[in-house]
Amino acid sequence: MDTRCVLHVDMDAFYASVEQRDNPELRGKPVAVGGTSNRGVVAAASYEAREFGVRSAMPIREALRRCPQLERVRPRMNVYKEISKQVFDVFRSFSPLVEGLSLDEAFIDVTDSLRLFGSGECIAAAIKEQVFETTGLCASVGVAANKLVAKIASDLDKPDGLVVIPADRVNAVLDPLPVSVIPGIGRETLSRLSTAGISTVGDLRTCPENRLRPIFGRYTAKTIARASGIDERPVQPDREEKSISAEETFDRDLEHTADMERALLALTERCTSRMRKAGLSAGTVHIKIRESDFTTCTRQRAMRPPTNSTDVIYAAGRSLLAEWRASNPSARIRLLGIGGAKLVEASQQDLFSADSQPSSTRVDSTVDEIRQRFGDKALGRARTIDTS
Question: Which of 72, 248, 255, 337 is most buried, judging by how many CB atoms fall within 10 Å of its CB?
Answer without folding.
Answer: 337
